[in-house]
Specification:
InterPro entries: Bardet-Biedl_syndrome_7_prot, BBS7_GAE_dom, BBS7_hairpin, BBS7_pf_dom, Beta-prop_BBS7, WD40_repeat_dom_sf. Keywords: Coiled coil. Pfam families: BBS7_GAE, BBS7_hp, BBS7_pf, Beta-prop_BBS7. The chain has about 700 residues and is α+β, with helices and mostly antiparallel strands. It contains eleven helices and 42 strands. The strands form ten sheets. Strands 37-39-40-41-38-42 form a six-stranded antiparallel β-sheet, with helices on one face. Strands 32-33-30-35-36 form a five-stranded antiparallel β-sheet, with no helix packed on it. A hairpin with a 2-residue loop joins β3 and β4. About 35% of the residues are buried.
Length: about 700
């Protein structure tokens, strides 16, 4: 184990000389680079540097077409180079104003990215510069020896790969999710040298060909099993069939091996679950000559090897041999080491107790790092909050000042308890404590918010360390929290329009949009004006926002979205004492269109609720009568599917209430724009919703 490691901070050095085993080099967030080999199952250090700034990336380089055995690390705004023996030969201060987030090396060319800035250096001399419209997560360059020109590719948070030429954007390639990692197909860009594999934060994997003029998508694998986001990719022939497999590491600790068939999509052949997110993955020969391995480094710094070496050896009679001498000596040495460590812990604890009780005692808060991720899931319109700590978590307290639902997560083994809270005086809507089982370092929670209600979700994380200490992490729940950025929308839908005019700058209106909607870059976009498209993940309605200095135009097929925007934007403008001229154009057909989108979901949830209410009674009948052949087929099918129905109902506790709430809001908002208050008619509407068909509902809306 080393310190906490960042994404892509571990590599295998090429094998040298007659020895076929490879050395491992890893950089951690204490700034330490550790290089070691494995002999007889034990780690043998080669070199270790002194601590320094956090290492964000570690790459291997060297002259083109020679073994890539020079080690380069990015820490802060500096790039340092080391030989494979650990001697530093380069210290290059880039003068970037932000820390380096991503790095790629090809011969004498160095490609660096901070949050929004891309820089290309050749022999440490500045060559090209590009300012991206959204955050850059990774950078790659197509192999120069194959494509004969420098083609950098940036993976950007707004679901596009930006392909550059010099300092200019050549074109953008749309991908199905925010790309987090890029890798050359087969490790060399495939036969053409133009093929790139990408992984997204919502767990999708794809291959795209980056030609000189346009992108050609080759294949794409969705995330059917609802696994974590992809953090690292490598190509290596681990199955020994002469074809390189795709090795994938995810942020929920799942490691996958995909077999690449020549023309078809890759097929998942093996997977293995680790307990922490996998920050780096490499294929090679590390532990034993002749047996290939997959090496993974996890967030808290564990390096784990999976080998192809058969673990069980059998003698002729088919009985397994006793533990080998080597294994027995290893076990006894581990036992001795464990006893020694336990003694050391006891001594240190006593020492701490004595010093803390002395008159000159100084309290020190132990520092620990938390890796957190708060993202919207498109499939079930819920937010995932993932908290990962470098030591075991004791408990997590979740508090929210807006109404939200906590949903069930299958992978979560923590015990949850709710505390009653008073929402009136201090707007406290949720207090829940998750008590984790021993050795839990990663916790995943799911919450669903209500659009129009905005505020802050806070997580108080307490790990199992002495003295007890806690970190607070805050997450903004935005007014239109269930909206997600999309590449395009359907312009043929009936759209309502909200137009704002006033004495505001481009930066001011942009900051209001950032406040209202998720997935909008915080930095003000370049240029005079900007257009963003969004889709509501719960209902499938859409929003188009176009704005410039002094004017903003928002179009949506859902009148409630327009109503929320109108309220929040006028509130924000009032705070800054800016006078707004607001006009709106309401499309009569849009309410009917939105109801048609909601109604199938409403019907499905009502039917599910009715079935769930019948289960107990039907089960009682089954017990009394012995068999259920006399029941109608529809009731028999409810009994057969009872477990799945209960499971689905449990996963979405307040789904029906949410839909009722949306229909009520739609009803109120429709008449609000006409200047009529219909709140007195809401009880009538709710009464009607129970057994109402789509036409009846539309008729009620039109007759009111």
């Amino acid at each position: 184990q080393v310190g906490v490691t960042a994404q892509k901070a571990m590599r295998l050095l090429p094998a040298s000389g007659r020895k076929a085993t490879q050395k491992v080099v890893v950089g951690d967030q204490d700034g330490v680079i550790t290089c070691f080999g494995i002999k007889k199952g034990e780690a043998v250090p080669v070199f270790k540097t002194l601590p320094g700034q956090k290492i964000a990336r570690l790459e291997l380089g060297g002259a083109l077409n020679t073994p890539q055995e020079k080690i380069f690390v990015a820490a802060g705004s500096e790039v340092r180079g080391f030989t494979k023996r650990g001697k530093q030969f380069l210290s290059f201060e880039t003068n970037l104003t932000e820390s380096i987030k991503a790095m790629h090396i090809s011969g004498a060319d160095l490609f660096l990215c901070a949050s929004y800035i891309y820089n290309h250096y050749c022999d440490c001399k500045d060559q090209h510069y590009y300012l991206s419209g959204d955050k850059i997560n990774d950078v790659l360059c197509l192999p120069v020896d194959k494509v004969n020109c420098i083609t950098p590719v940036l993976a950007c948070q707004d679901r596009v790969l930006r392909v550059l030429q010099g300092s200019d954007l050549l074109y953008e390639a749309e991908v199905p999710g925010p790309p987090t990692v890029l890798a050359l197909s087969n490790g060399n860009g495939g036969d053409s040298g133009e093929e790139i594999v990408y992984g997204t934060s919502d767990g999708k994997l794809g291959l795209i060909q980056i030609t000189g003029s346009k992108p050609i998508p080759k294949w794409e694998i969705g995330n059917e099993k609802k696994r974590g986001g992809i953090l690292c990719i490598d190509s290596f022939d681990i199955l020994g069939d002469g074809v390189k497999e795709l090795l994938v590491g995810r942020d929920d600790g799942v490691l996958e091996i995909y077999r690449c068939e020549s023309a078809d999509d890759p097929v998942l052949r093996y997977d293995y679950a680790l307990s922490e997110s996998i920050a780096s993955i490499q294929g090679g020969c590390v532990g034993k000559d002749g047996y290939d391995e997959i090496l993974a480094s996890t967030y808290s710094g564990w390096l784990t090897g999976l080998t192809t070496e058969p673990v069980h050896r059998e003698d002729g009679s088919g009985e397994e041999l006793k533990l080998s001498q080597e294994m027995q000596s290893k076990i006894s040495s581990l036992r001795n080491e464990l006893e020694h460590l336990q003694m050391k812990v006891l001594q240190e604890r006593e020492k701490y107790q004595q010093s803390s009780q002395s008159s000159t005692a100084v309290s020190s808060v132990p520092a620990f790092s938390v890796n957190d991720k708060f993202t919207l899931n498109k499939d079930d319109a819920s937010y995932s909050l993932i908290l990962e700590v470098q030591t075991a978590i004791d408990n997590v307290l979740v508090q929210s000042d807006v109404p939200i639902d906590l949903l069930d997560v299958d992978k979560n083994s923590a015990v949850v308890s709710f505390s009653s809270c008073d929402s009136e005086p201090n707007s406290n809507f949720l207090l829940a404590t998750y008590r984790c089982q021993a050795n839990t370092t990663r916790l995943e929670l799911k919450v669903r918010s209500i659009e129009g209600q905005y505020g802050t979700l806070q997580a108080y994380v307490t790990p199992r360390i002495q003295p007890k200490t806690c970190q607070v992490h805050q997450y903004q729940i935005k007014p239109l929290s269930l909206h997600q950025r999309t590449h395009s929308i359907d312009h043929n839908r009936p759209m309502n329009t909200l137009t704002l005019r006033g004495q505001f700058s481009f930066a001011e209106i942009h900051s209001w949009v950032v406040f209202c909607l998720p997935e909008v870059p915080e930095k003000t976009p370049a240029g005079e004006s900007i257009t963003f498209y969004f889709q509501n993940t719960f209902l499938g309605t859409q929003l188009e926002s176009t704005y410039r200095k002094g004017e903003g135009c928002f179009k949506s097929d859902n009148i409630s979205t327009i109503s929320i925007l109108k309220d929040v934007l006028s509130k924000e403008a009032t705070k800054r004492k800016i006078n707004l001229n607001i006009s709106y154009d309401i499309h009569e057909e849009s309410v009917r269109h939105t109801l048609k989108l909601i109604h199938p979901k409403l019907e499905y949830q009502q039917l599910l609720a009715k079935k769930v209410h019948l289960i107990d009674a039907l089960r009682e009948l089954q017990v009394h009568e012995g068999n259920v052949d006399f029941l109608l087929p529809k009731y028999r099918s409810i009994l057969e599917e009872a477990d799945q129905l209960l499971e689905e109902y449990k996963r979405q506790p307040a789904h029906l209430e949410r839909l009722y709430g949306m229909i009520t809001d739609l009803f109120i908002d429709k008449f609000k724009f006409k200047g009529t208050n219909v709140k007195t008619k809401v009880p009538l509407l709710l009464e009607m919703l129970d057994g109402c068909d789509q036409d009846g509902l539309i008729a009620f809306f039109e007759a009111a």
